[in-house]
Each structure stands twice: as structure tokens, then as C-alpha cells.
């Protein structure tokens, strides 16, 4: 039997577009490219790389991904406006395969208050935009924002018209997360039955999670004929987020008996992708998050443990290794050689150059001297933390702090742009506060600390500490993460990581002016 389009659900990842819009989640261009490479390894069919017309960083991110990332179709977002479509084409045109994703709003409330257009004008502009896009690429997706609160008759009309104009994918967004599964599934079934030319296109879902129903709604769409899901890693996205890629994919895979279809996702890359996105966006994964949370495969109660030990399937419907969750066993120690370390890094998905290997091995030995047992999570944490990141403005070179019964104080030396040495000292309410004050003085960055947290990467007191911060400048929130066996150093690194995000954004908005 040959596979036909109904056997597979297209996975359209919007982590770099919808999720990147969420507060604190902004990424610099090298980080976007790094995530896009990992999404390609994960096997997503489409990467929505950004909204090219919206800013120079967005344009450059889409362009670099289009040029450098192979495998998936690369999509760029555009309103139903010629200049948006032209900007998207300019950014995308070097990709192996690319798609224009053009959208407008179709609900009465959006058309009246936001677009200030009548339905006739909205429809005419949509058709004009799709025709323009189709003249430039055969792969054109159309979205009717707020479809779940739109008039069904108007939806049928506009969808029929844009298909006639050449659209190849029709996306049905639940933009405000208002739908419930039965109703959303019914909307897809209704469109399948009432749009005369619907068989020519792929129907897609794009569900937000305001009521916690994004995954359930997307899957109800699939059960009723949708064959593309727009989703994001860790369910990140505007407000409460989008449908989580890992939950949609693993539900379809685990309950193939119900869905009678599959995806092209290499599920063993799920965990690593989730960790990478969490780290680069600085947004922690909640511990009980399905599939990728720290507790997703932990069996705590005696009854569960007893059953699980007798027969895994009593309490486990998926295996952790199916989604690439590391086995948490001791893998290496201070006597491990460079070769063993290199092989373990490769198994964990890190391809190091000889130079990087030398640097990372030194860090590993340093950690092994401080910490008795080294787990996969430790290796991932030091590699993630120490791998050089292009586009960083500030780097912590030296840090000294004192605390105790006196007034805490700190001195830091920071290297700016790889050359200028910035040395400063400051006092604070505690050691972290003193270090942060010294860093702020040295960098001259005017930001407010909104949130600070610290956790141990693995269990014991000799564990690596991971600090997460959120800072705000006058426009946006930026996140940062740092790792070290010394929690003050981890905190300093996290702060500097967030400052680097803010500096990159500020540099780009200056360029734009
Ligand atoms: O939520 C939404 O409606 C969107 C569209 C641009 C597809 O993100
Ligand atoms: Zn959205």
C-alpha cells in the first residue's frame, strides 16, 4: 500500500513565529537558526521562521533559516498586503522549499474594530493577496484569524474564493482559544462538507490554549479531516500558548488506533528540542508538563511503582526513550577519557569541533572534580551553557563576591564585544544583588529585574545550579539562563545572558531607525 496524504498529518511548527512573540521569549538570529536546525532534526514538515516585514531581525532570521536549514519547508508570515508578501518572498527565496503564509481576520469583531473593513473588502484583499503570492510560489497558505468566532457562511465564501485564487493550505485558527473540541471538530467537518473545492487543499488547525484546550481542539480537527497541525515546542505562544507539538504528535502516535494516521516526527528528538527551546527562550518547562516535564515519566506512589516494576505497561503508555528522555544514569566520572566524553556528547546530539571538544572536556573535568557523579543532564547543561553563542555582546570574565554578616559586595570584569574590559564593584542586599548591581554598572544597561529563580539540575548539594531570570527594558521582557556549580556564578551568567538578549534587540531597533 502506498502512503497517501491522508496517512500523515503535516506538522507545522510555529515556535519561531507565534511562540517567539510571547513575552520574554525573544531570540537573536543565531539562536533562531540553532532552533531551526534542531526542528529539522526533529522532522517537522514546515518551520514558520518568522514575520519578515515586521522588523529587520525577523527578516534576517527568516533569511538565514531559509539559506541554512535543509529539509523542512520554510514559511514566512504576511498580512494580506503586497509589501508583506514581497518582504516574505525576499527573505524566503533562497530556501529549498518555501511557503507564504498570508492571513487576515474573518470574525465580525476583528473586521469591525481591528481591520475596520467590511467583509466584502476583507474577501477581495484576501483573494488579491493569494493571487499575488501564487504568482511567486506554488505553496501558499491562507489563514482566517479568529475563525472560531467567524460567521460560518462567510468562512465558506472566503475559503472557496482563496482556493480558487490558488491557496494550497487553508488554516483555521482558534486565535483566542475559545473553541471546545466537539465544536472545533464540527467546524472542520462543516468546512469539509460545505466548501465545494476543499478537496484541493490541506486543512490546518492553529489552536491557542486560553482554556487549556489547544491540543484537544487540534486533535478534534484531525479526527474530522484536518491534515496539518500548527503547533509549538512546549506549547509556547501568545498568552497561554499554542497547541504543544509534543503532545499532539505523541497522542497521534500512541493512539494510532483512533487517528489512523501518523506524523513524520522523529520522536526521539522531542526532549532535546524541548530543552533547547526552554533554554534559549529562558522559559522553564513546568514539571508536570505532559511528555517533556521532569515528572512526566516519574512513578512516585508505592502502588504505581509496584505495578510498573512488575510490568511497565501497567502505568506507562509511552517509553521515556521514545521521546529521547535521558536515562539519568551515571555516565562518566573524573577518570573518563576525552574519547568517552566525545562519544557521549555525540549520543546526546552535540557535534563538537576539536577546539570545542578541548574546551568542553576541560569544563567536564572541572565539574567532575567538584561533583562525584555526572549525569546526562549535567553534560547537557554544561554543553548548553558553555557552547559559544554568536552575537553575544557581554561575557563574564571574572567575578568575586563576599557575603556574611557584613554588607555583601561584588566585583566583576566583563568583556564587551570580545575586546573592551569593563571592571566594576558594587554593594547589595545579598550576594546576588551585589553581583547584579556590579554587572549593571559595568554594562551600563538600564533594566529592571522582574523574576529570578534557581534550581539544582540534578538532586544533591554538589549539583549544578541553574539560574533563570527575566529582565525588562522600556519595551520588552528578556529571559536569561546560566549554569554553574556555584549558584552566584550561575546567577551572574543568567543575568548577562538576559542582558545579551536586550542588547541585541536594542542594537537592532537602532539599525531600524
Ligand atoms: O492565532 C492566530 O490566528 C495566528 C494567525 C496569524 C495564524 O497566529
Ligand atoms: Zn496564533
Output the keywords.
single chain, 513 residues, alpha/beta, TIM Barrel, Double Stranded RNA Binding Domain, 3 domains, three-stranded antiparallel β-sheet, 17 helices, 20% strand, globular, binds 3-methyl-2-oxobutanoic acid, binds zinc ion
Q: Give the CATH topology of the largest domain.
A: TIM Barrel
Q: Estimate what percentage of residues fall within beta strands.
A: 15-25%
What is the helix fraction of residues, given as a range?
Answer: 40-55%
- Tell me the number of helical segments per DSSP (H or I, 4 or more residues long): 17
**CATH-wise, what's the superfamily of the largest domain?**
Aldolase class I
The total count of strands amounts to 16
How far apart are the first and last residues' alpha carbons, in Å? 58 Å
**Gyration radius over CA:** 24 Å
Mean of all residue-level pLDDT scores: 90
Largest sheet: 8 strands, parallel, barrel
CATH class of the largest domain: Alpha Beta
Task: Tell me the structural class.
Answer: alpha/beta
Spatially, the strands of the biggest sheet line up as: 1-2-3-4-5-6-7-8
- Global outline: globular
User: How many domain units?
Assistant: 3
Please tell me about this protein's structure:
This protein is α/β, with parallel strands linked by helices. It has 3 domains: 8-281, Aldolase class I (TIM Barrel, Alpha-Beta Barrel); 298-386, no CATH class; 394-512, Double Stranded RNA Binding Domain (2-Layer Sandwich), CATH 3.30.160.270. 41% of the residues lie in helices and 20% in strands. It has 17 helices and 16 strands. It has helices at 29-42, 56-68, 82-92, 108-115, 119-134, 152-164, 181-194, 214-223, 245-254, 256-259, 270-281, 302-310, 338-347, 354-370, 376-386, 431-443, 487-512, and strands at residues 10-13, 46-50, 73-79, 98-105, 140-145, 169-174, 202-207, 228-231, 330-332, 374-375, 394-402, 409-416, 420-427, 448-456, 465-472, 477-484. The strands form 4 sheets. It has an 8-stranded parallel barrel, surrounded by 8 helices. Strands 11-12-13 form a 3-stranded antiparallel beta sheet. Strands 14-15-16 form a 3-stranded antiparallel beta sheet. The longest helix is centred in the C-terminal third of the chain and has 26 residues, at 487-512. The radius of gyration is 24 Å and the shape is globular. The N and C termini lie far apart (58 Å). Bound molecules: 3-methyl-2-oxobutanoic acid and zinc ion.
Amino acid at each position: 500500500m502506498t502512503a497517501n496524504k491522508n496517512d500523515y498529518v503535516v506538522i507545522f511548527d510555529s515556535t519561531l513565529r507565534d511562540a517567539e512573540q510571547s513575552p520574554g521569549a525573544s531570540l537573536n538570529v543565531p539562536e533562531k537558526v540553532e532552533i531551526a536546525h534542531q526542528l529539522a532534526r526533529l522532522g517537522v514538515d514546515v518551520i514558520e521562521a518568522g514575520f519578515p516585514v515586521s522588523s529587520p531581525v525577523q527578516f534576517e532570521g527568516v533569511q538565514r533559516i531559509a539559506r541554512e536549514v535543509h529539509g523542512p519547508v520554510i514559511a514566512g508570515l504576511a498580512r494580506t498586503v503586497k509589501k508583506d508578501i514581497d518582504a516574505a518572498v525576499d527573505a524566503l527565496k533562497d530556501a529549498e522549499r518555501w511557503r507564504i503564509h498570508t492571513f487576515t481576520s474573518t470574525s465580525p469583531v476583528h473586521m469591525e474594530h481591528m481591520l475596520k473593513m467590511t467583509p466584502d473588502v476583507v474577501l477581495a484583499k484576501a483573494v488579491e493577496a493569494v493571487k499575488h503570492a501564487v504568482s511567486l510560489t506554488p505553496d501558499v497558505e491562507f489563514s482566517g484569524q479568529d475563525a472560531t468566532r467567524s460567521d460560518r457562511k462567510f468562512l465558506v465564501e472566503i475559503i472557496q474564493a482563496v482556493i480558487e485564487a490558488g491557496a494550497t493550505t487553508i488554516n483555521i485558527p482558534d486565535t483566542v482559544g475559545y473553541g471546545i473540541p466537539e465544536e472545533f471538530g464540527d467546524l472542520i467537518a462543516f468546512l469539509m462538507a460545505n466548501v465545494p473545492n476543499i478537496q484541493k487543499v490541506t486543512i490546518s488547525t492553529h489552536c491557542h490554549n486560553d482554556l487549556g484546550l489547544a491540543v484537544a481542539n487540534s486533535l478534534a480537527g484531525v479526527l474530522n479531516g484536518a491534515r496539518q497541525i500548527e503547533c509549538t515546542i512546549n506549547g509556547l505562544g501568545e498568552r497561554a500558548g499554542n497547541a504543544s507539538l509534543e503532545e499532539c504528535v505523541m497522542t497521534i502516535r500512541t493512539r494510532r488506533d483512533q487517528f489512523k494516521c501518523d506524523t513524520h516526527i522523529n520522536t526521539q528528538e522531542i526532549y532535546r528540542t524541548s530543552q533547547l527551546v526552554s533554554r534559549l527562550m529562558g522559559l522553564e518547562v513546568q514539571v508536570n508538563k505532559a511528555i517533556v516535564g521532569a515528572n512526566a515519566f516519574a512513578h512516585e506512589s508505592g502502588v504505581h511503582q509496584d505495578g510498573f516494576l512488575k510490568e511497565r505497561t501497567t502505568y506507562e503508555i509511552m517509553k521515556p526513550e521514545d521521546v529521547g528522555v535521558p536515562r539519568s544514569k551515571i555516565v562518566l566520572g573524573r577518570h573518563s577519557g576525552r574519547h568517552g566524553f566525545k562519544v557521549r556528547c555525540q549520543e546526546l546530539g552535540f557535534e563538537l569541533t576539536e577546539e570545542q571538544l578541548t574546551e568542553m572536556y576541560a569544563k567536564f573535568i572541572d565539574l567532575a572534580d567538584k561533583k562525584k557523579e555526572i549525569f546526562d543532564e549535567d553534560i547537557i547543561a554544561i554543553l548548553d551553557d558553555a557552547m559559544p553563542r554568536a552575537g553575544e555582546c557581554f561575557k563574564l570574565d571574572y567575578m568575586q563576591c563576599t557575603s556574611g554578616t557584613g554588607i555583601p559586595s561584588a566585583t566583576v570584569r566583563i568583556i564587551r564585544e570580545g575586546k573592551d574590559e569593563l571592571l566594576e564593584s558594587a554593594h547589595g542586599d545579598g550576594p546576588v544583588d551585589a553581583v547584579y548591581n556590579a554587572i549593571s554598572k559595568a554594562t551600563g544597561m538600564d533594566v529592571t529585574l522582574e523574576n529570578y529563580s534557581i534550581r539544582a539540575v540534578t538532586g544533591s548539594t554538589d549539583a549544578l545550579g541553574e539560574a533563570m531570570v527575566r529582565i525588562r527594558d522600556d519595551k520588552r521582557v528578556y529571559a536569561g539562563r546560566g549554569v554553574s556549580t556555584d549558584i552566584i556564578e550561575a546567577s551572574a551568567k543568567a543575568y548577562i545572558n538576559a542582558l545579551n538578549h536586550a542588547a541585541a534587540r536594542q542594537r537592532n531597533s537602532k539599525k531600524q531607525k
